[in-house]
Amino acid sequence: MRVSHFSAALVAMLVGYGASVALLLAAAAAVGATPEQTISWVAAVSVAKGLGSAGLSAWARVPMVLAWSTPGAALIAATTGVGIEAAAGAFLLAGALVALTGVVPVMGRAVRAIPQAVASAMLAGVLLPFVMGVARYGTAEPWIVLPLLAVFLLTRLWNPLYAVLATLLVGLVLGWSPPETVRLEALPFTFVRPVFEPSVLIGLGLPLYLVTMASQNLPGFAVMSAHGYAPPVNAALVATGLGSALIAPLGAHTFNMAAITAAICMGDDVDPDRTRRWRVGVVYGALWVVMGWLTPVVLPAMLALPPAVVGTVAGLALIPALTGALAGGMADEPRRFAAILTFATTASGVAAFGIGAAFWGLLAGLLALGLDRLKAR
What is the reported pLDDT for 192? Predict the structure, then answer.
């Protein structure tokens, strides 16, 4: 082990946590999770991805860096009228579909067959309301939002990687209030009985699976390939899919391959010998297991934050993801109309027959592409 193995893993863990934990809180609030269920959610997904990272890295001898699905959390936070039990059923379905993708080749081909422009536009439509929320909070509570925005912009000039983490820390200082009770538990989990409602499975479970695959797993594998590693794709999909399905009854959503935090753990500065960088994945996993166990201590302070702090941090954290999604959606000119239709439908938040806007946006885009192809023929 080298000191750089620990430092890279620690930075990746802190960046991953600070950049998106506010979004998990928004997702938990959207499905009506109690504080105990929210703690269980964050603790379960933290421990699961920690064990997955360490186990896959030690087994494959390559740095396998996993993360919770940030776009998935945004998708959950954008839902309305869904309870935590029905959401848990959707999480279980999404995890099972990811695992099946690693086993059934035709499923992998089906996901890859969805045009990148449409998938990116759907993601952009999910993310847009959160980024726009920064402006709404800024007009309602400028004394909170403007200092956070200043910290974000100034830190971004120095190092964009730490901009969200610094903003979250300042938000904790501005809005922190001591929680009434804090205690460390051996197993900080709460059981949530999954309920399988067809409309929620279609409107949340299926889009969660597609977002996790298209916006997290595929870019995560691409990052590994760009650093000269041959990712064990099938094994990773089965492990993360089954792991996500197992933690769904604890109220937790999917986890998957990481992209940005993975790049932190794979550079030459981590270890000149690329065959030894898999050890960073083991350290990274161990740190996440510890962070998951500490959730009952860490998370109550964040649960006590004002909504303006949580909404602002989440919105700022999603700007890079929204930028990439918009660029991906508009880059393919022949499919740009379908992408715009997908984006507008998803961003509208419309729900029909109890099914959320992400599904209808995807359906609208695919329908437009089908008609274009029919015309061409």
Answer: 95
